[in-house]
Structures are given as C-alpha cells and as structure tokens.
TrEMBL record:
PROSITE patterns: CYTC (PS51007). Residues 30-128 form the Cytochrome c domain. It comes from the Bacteria. The keyword Manganese does not apply. It comes from Chryseobacterium nematophagum. PANTHER family: CYTOCHROME C7-LIKE DOMAIN-CONTAINING PROTEIN, LIPOPROTEIN CYTOCHROME C. Keywords: Heme, Iron, Membrane, Metal-binding, Signal, Transmembrane, Transmembrane helix. GO terms for molecular function: electron transfer activity; heme binding; metal ion binding. This is Quinol:cytochrome C oxidoreductase.
Length: 452
C-alpha cells in the first residue's frame, strides 16, 4: 500500500511538471494563433513585434516588464484594459513607461476579455512561425528548372537548323552572282549605260509632272512643319520618374484615399499644389513597411520599403526613436502638369462650381468609361496609375471643346440667382438641345476669362 501511494505521488508530480512546462511554452494557457489575429486587429497601428513604431516592440514583453518593473501578467492586463486609470492610481512603473515614450497616450481596450489578452501575450512570447508562400516567380523558376533539359535540346536543334539555312542562303547568293557575271555581255553593259544617261531626257519629257509632284511634296512638308510647331509643348503621355516612387494605384486605388486628402487646396485654391512631406507622414509615421497585397510587376516588398525610408530621410524622421531629428532633405519632384504663364486656370472654379456639370458631361460623352470624381475628367483615372502621366492634351482647343459641350446646371441655387435676368434670353439665344445652356453661353469663350 505504501509503495503504491509513493508511485502515485511521483506520477502526479510528473504530470504537474509536464503541464507547467506546456503552459510556459504556450504563453501560460494563451493561444498564439488567435493572439496573432487579435494583435493585428488591435495593436499594429502603434506596435510591431521586433521594432519600435509609436510604441515599443512587444516581442517578449512579459519577460521585459518583469525584468524592468518587477510586474507580471496581471499588471499587463490592467495596462492594456485601461492604462490611463493605472497611471492615475499612482502606479510607478506605468508612469515611467508613459514618460519614457514621450507621454504618448495609449488607447484603452475594455472590449478585450482576459482570455483575449492572454492570447495576445502568448503571441508576443511565442509568435507562430510564418508560413512559407511560394511566389509566382519561385514556382515559375521551379518549372523552368524541371523542363530545362528538354528546353536545352530544343534550343540546340533550332540553332543548328538556323545555321544550316544561313549557310545555304550564302551559297545560293554566291552562285547567283556568278551567273549574273557570266550572262552580262558587252551589249547589255552598253544598254545599262544608255539608261543611266537618259534620265535627263526622261525629265525633259515629263517635267510638268515632276514639277507638280515637287509642289505637292512642298505643300505636304509645309503642313508637316506647321503641324509639328502646333504640337510643341503638348506632352500627352508624359510620365517622368520621380525621386521617390509614389503609386497612385496603391494609395487612391487599393486604399481608396480621397484625392483631396493630399491635394487639399485643389478644392478651394487656384492650384492643387504638391503635398508636403508632412502630409505623407500623417500615415507613414506608423506605416514603416509595405504589407499590401498589390505589387506592380517588377517591384517587390523591398522596393516599396526603400521608398518609405526615402520619406523618412526627407522629413528627418527616426523610426527607432519615433521622433524627428531636424535634419531634412528637400525632395526635387519633377513637375508634370504645367500651365503656361499667360493662361489662367482656377482649380476651385472647376472642382466646386463645375463639379457635377463636368462629371455629367464626361459620362454622357463616355458611357463606357464613366468617372465618379471630377479630377479624373482632366487627369484621367489616376487611381489606376502606378506612375502619373499627362492624360490629355491640355491645349486651348481641348479646353474650348469642353466649354462648348459641358452643360451648365441652371437650376442650382447660385446659377438660378446669378443668371435670373439672363436665363430666358440665354434659352432663346442658345436653343440647341432643347434650350440646354453650355459653358460657352455664359462667357466660357471670352478671351479675358483665361488670358490676362
């Protein structure tokens, strides 16, 4: 009986040690996989596992707070739930952390359960190894290697065949040249000399036709030169490389960022301006690497991460310390759209006053290529462009055609009041399309509107 009890106690001790070891491996009853999901949903705006973003890196945070502050998981639960209340209670370590990270207020997470927090802490202690994903390039490379012996054999056969054909053609040319020399008699040589010398006689006989052809060629040349001159300064399709690669497809297309978030003065100012680098930093203070699904062909994650680092260098941002160094590097952007000095163009007039009229006119003329933002009428579908290009001619004729075809909304409050006395007169003066009034009817073709 005593021996049985002894072995029973040893068995219980062994099972207890096994369970405690397992608990320590898996973050003390936490689920790292679920913790990863919760971490990405709640924490990645300010934290990463292995580097400082706005807040400190969180890998091994359970051990770190124990070493630094002598606190455990219970303290982390209180901190995550409501760090402000923890600081207000006078907790020394909580206030030290707050001071250390520039008094940056951390969000509170009362919605997270105790188990949720345990899962997150388990993830920071033992993050699951990332699953290896086969890229299309790697798959293609594997297939290429598998098929390489057959491909090499086929290539060798093709090369040998081409060389044989080339040799046969050379041999035929040599033989033909020999035959021509043998068949060229003295009479044939004399006839050839006569034909060469008689060109002047042919010209004398058909000189009127020749002069007519010369006149036609001169007219065509004049038209060509004139047409070339008229297109000087028209750069449709122009898309220069920029010092920092910026994909509108990623920002405006994939992430649905509104144009006016960056180009804020386009709506209320004459020019749309180039956004300052501080506008970029509104987002990229916390986005230090590219984790999007979309990648332009020929580009990889390392390329996009490098461009983000260029933004940091330009603004003097230190991502490790999460603060500005004061050392900035101005970015020399290459201008794409540039109106001549003698042309007046006001963005706000088109974006605000003419917004709906321009969208309606464009969609009516392009039923298979409709737009939802007024900017696209002139600049093209920017949200599909990796590299911005000049989408239209931007010539005087192009602007006039737009003014002649864009219908003015005479029923909106401003136009109805402003053109109150001219409304009926304009309808009689411009009866086309059932009395529809276009921009040219209200001064859209007056020289002084666009030229000083």
């Amino acid at each position: 009986m005593i021996s049985w009890r002894k072995h029973y106690k040893q068995t219980l001790i062994a099972i207890g040690l096994l369970l405690s070891t397992s608990a320590s491996i898996y973050g003390q009853d936490g689920d790292p996989k679920n913790g990863e999901k919760l971490f990405k949903a709640n924490c990645t705006a300010c934290h990463a596992l292995d580097k400082q973003v706005i807040g400190p890196p969180l890998k091994g945070v359970v051990d770190r707070v124990k070493t630094e502050g002598g606190v455990g998981k219970d303290w982390l639960h209180k901190w995550i739930k409501d760090n402000k209340a923890l600081r207000a209670s006078g907790d020394k370590y909580a206030n030290e952390i707050f001071e250390k990270y520039n008094k940056t207020e951390m969000l509170v997470f009362p919605n997270l359960s105790e188990k949720d927090i345990d899962d997150i802490l388990a993830y920071t202690t033992n993050p699951p190894a990332p699953e290896e994903k086969k890229t299309p390039e790697a798959t293609a490379g594997t297939e290429a290697n598998a098929a390489s012996p057959a491909d090499k054999t086929t290539t060798n056969i093709v090369i040998i065949s081409l060389l044989a054909i080339a040799g046969l053609l050379v041999w035929i040319l040599i033989k033909l040249r020999q035959l021509v020399k043998l068949g060229q008699s003295e009479d044939l040589a004399g006839l050839n000399e006569t034909r060469v010398k008689s060109f002047s006689e042919i010209y004398q006989k058909y000189h009127l036709i020749g002069k007519g052809l010369i006149a036609i060629l001169a007219l065509l040349a004049t038209y060509g030169i004139w047409n070339w001159i008229m297109w000087i300064g028209v750069y449709k399709g122009y898309k220069p490389d920029q010092p920092i690669y910026f994909s509108h497809k990623i920002h405006a297309g994939e992430n649905k960022i509104d144009c006016q978030l960056c180009h804020s003065s386009a709506k209320y100012g004459k020019v749309s301006e180039i956004p300052s680098m501080n506008v970029c930093m509104n987002c990229h203070r916390t986005i230090s690497e590219y984790n999007g699904k979309y990648m332009e062909p020929g580009k990889d994650k390392a390329f996009y991460d490098e461009q983000i680092q260029k933004i940091y260098a330009a603004t003097g941002w230190d991502p490790q310390k999460a603060q500005y160094t004061g050392k900035t590097q101005p970015v020399e952007w290459t201008r794409i759209h540039n109106m001549p000095d003698f042309v007046y163009f006001n963005h706000s007039q088109h974006v605000v006053a003419g917004e709906q009229a321009i969208i309606n006119s464009f969609n009516k003329k392009n039923p298979n290529n409709k737009i939802d933002v007024v900017c696209k009428a002139c600049h093209g579908k920017i949200d599909t462009m990796n590299v911005v290009q000049m989408a239209n001619d931007f010539t005087m004729g192009w602007c006039i055609e737009c003014h002649r075809t864009t219908e003015v909304d005479m029923n909106n409050g401003y136009n109805k009041e402003y053109f109150k006395n001219l409304h009926d007169k304009l309808k009689k003066q411009y009866p086309k399309d059932g009395g529809k009034i276009t921009v040219d009817a209200i001064g859209g073709l007056e020289c002084g509107k666009c030229h000083y």
